[in-house]
Design brief:
Layout: E1 3-4, E2 14-15, H1 18-42, H2 48-70, H3 75-87, H4 89-107, H5 116-143, H6 147-184, E3 196-202, E4 207-213, H7 219-222, H8 225-253, H9 264-284, H10 287-290
């Protein structure tokens, strides 16, 4: 446990525990290195500005907390960790939106209200808007000279986190509806026309005697074991991110000197651990081996 310290000048409200901050720096560094290696190995380049950027931001944030464990009365470590740990998960959710858009394309766009590209554009736009709002709030809080100004900046950051939660909630609703429609085989859009195959052939007349219609493959039949595992990974990571977002919203609304933001254990468990587990989940249940991009897709595959 950290030594509680609420004296003026200590923005944390406690002295961050050295070994815990060092452990999180090391663990986030490891999962980030693995994500970068996976992106390079599988040649999925959008994983760099999504999963890898999230990890790098978390490393910086926890490095700020490590710095704060040695200099708790210096403001810069606090600002460094509060900004980086708030912004970074936005990049992780962006990658998750990309992955689900790809699953829609593989399983069947006819079951989705949004086309894969429209889906990606919509949710990435919401994600970027949340990031910009959080950045504006972070800059206001960092430049604040009074507690009132700092609280205004915090409220703006809360707005960004809430916007991110709205995006994640919409993502969950659309994902749930999509999967229900897939497993019940209830497409929204017209299904592609079934192919036909030659059943018999008249050798003398050199023409087919009859043709046999091939039933179209349903979305449920396209959900392979690997796609199912990728969906499981997305669900698990989403739960972790959602828990973290609820915590950070309550934390900032409680104020800079409230009992939540000044509780180190809550931050370690409900922020650091949640994002770390989400990143590790997506290391293990990774799109590179579960839904790989084929050679035929490679020239145009960006989602």
């Amino acid at each position: 446990m950290a030594e509680q310290n609420n004296n003026d000048g200590n923005a944390f409200g406690y002295i961050p525990t050295l070994w815990i901050t060092a452990l999180f720096v090391g663990l986030f560094f490891l999962t980030t290195v693995v994500h970068i290696g996976q992106a390079l190995y599988y040649k999925i380049w959008w994983l760099i500005p999504t999963f890898a950027f999230c990890g790098l931001g978390e490393v910086l944030g926890w490095a700020g907390r490590l710095w704060g464990s040695q200099q708790p009365y210096v403001l810069d470590p606090f600002l460094m960790q509060i900004c980086c740990t708030i912004f970074s998960p936005t990049f992780l959710t962006a990658g998750m939106f990309f992955i689900f858009g790809r699953i829609i394309g593989l399983v069947g766009p006819e079951y989705s209200r949004l086309r894969p590209k429209t889906y990606a554009i919509t949710f990435l736009s919401l994600d970027m808007a949340a990031l910009i709002v959080q950045a504006v709030g972070g800059s206001q809080a960092s430049a604040a000279e009074t507690l009132e100004e700092a609280n205004r900046g915090a409220n703006v950051m809360v707005g960004g986190i809430i916007l991110q939660m709205v995006a994640i909630t919409l993502y969950v609703v659309i994902q749930a509806e999509y999967l229900v429609r897939v497993f019940k085989d209830k497409p929204i859009h017209p299904r592609p026309a079934p192919a036909t195959a030659m059943a018999t052939f008249d050798a003398e007349k050199l023409q087919p005697k009859a043709t046999l219609a091939i039933a179209p493959v349903t979305g449920r039949q396209r959900v392979t074991k690997n796609i199912g595992l990728m969906l499981l990974g997305l669900v698990i990571a989403t739960v972790f991110i959602y828990v973290r977002s609820i915590y950070r919203t309550i934390e900032l609304l409680d104020g800079w000197n409230g009992p939540i933001i000044t509780n180190e254990t809550l931050f370690n468990v409900l922020d650091g651990m949640q994002i770390l587990l989400a990143m590790v989940t997506l290391n293990v249940l990774h799109p590179g081996w579960l839904i790989p991009i084929t050679k035929a897709e490679a020239p145009q595959a960006t989602v």
